Amino acid sequence: VQVTVPDPRTVALLFQPVLLRCHFQMGTPGPPPMVTWKYKSFCPSPAAGDTWAGPDGGDTPGTCPDSARTVRIVATKQGDTVTLGDFYRGRPVTIRGGAELSLGPAAWGDSGFYVCTVTSLQDLQGNNEAVAELVVLGET
Description:
Helix content: under 10%
CATH class: Mainly Beta
Largest sheet: 6 strands, mixed
CATH architecture: Sandwich
Distance between the termini: 42 Å
Shape: globular
Strand content: 35-45%
Oligomer: single chain
Strand order of the largest sheet: 2-11-10-5-6-7
Structural class: mainly beta
Number of strands: 11
Number of domains: 1
């Protein structure tokens, strides 16, 4: 499996629909893979003594441990069946096409990193996940 996110950083306005694109190519034919989108919040401001930020002071997906941030499943797609994580039930969230995450109207808590993971038991080679960053801006 080879997974790519064509737009690694998306900026959206509050209450506007958001589409995070994720593409995958299978190395071997087989049943449809399982697609999972996971949300990871930005790193909190480090406490005294913690150094999570990168050399430029910016946040990258690996600069703080997952235990220091909110991590939750957004949605999973197996075949044509999409299952939403608990936090997203009742919202117009779905996985469209192969692996595109449609978040409906953006909410304040949506800013963060979204990890697109494609799992296939027939194709274990390659890079099976990619990360998209979403920044939700309020109205000015």
